[in-house]
Amino acid sequence: MTTLAINWKRIPWRELNYVENSYFYMYITNKKPIYIGVSYKQHIVDEIYQTLESFNYRQVEISLYIGYIQYGKSTIEKISKELVKDSECLLIYCNQPRDNIQCKKNYTGRDNLKVICNGTSYLYKVQNCQNKQILVR
Asked: How big is the CA angle at 69 (ends 115 and 8), to the nearest 5 degrees?
């Protein structure tokens, strides 16, 4: 089983330009995730602003969380685009953010993936996929 542990941290908008070494981000409003996204090739700050513009989100209405990989609690040796995308898909499938479209009806990522979320109560703590069977705790 591949395990990816993510520590989510709320980031004030004024500190966004200092964010580095992260692939995952999430928008929260009314104590619910409304969008989960990733950035692999592009700097995450650029991706965050593009998503804001695409959905016409207003910064004053949403909170921004950045997901940092916890290497000591993960079983991965290197980060690949596929791992990042599969993890995003599992997070979306299990948590059903309002504005995500892909991965809401079915999980299309790899088998035997487990994503552990720390630092937020807005997502399920553990998302598991074993042979395309989703287990959420």
From this structure: 80
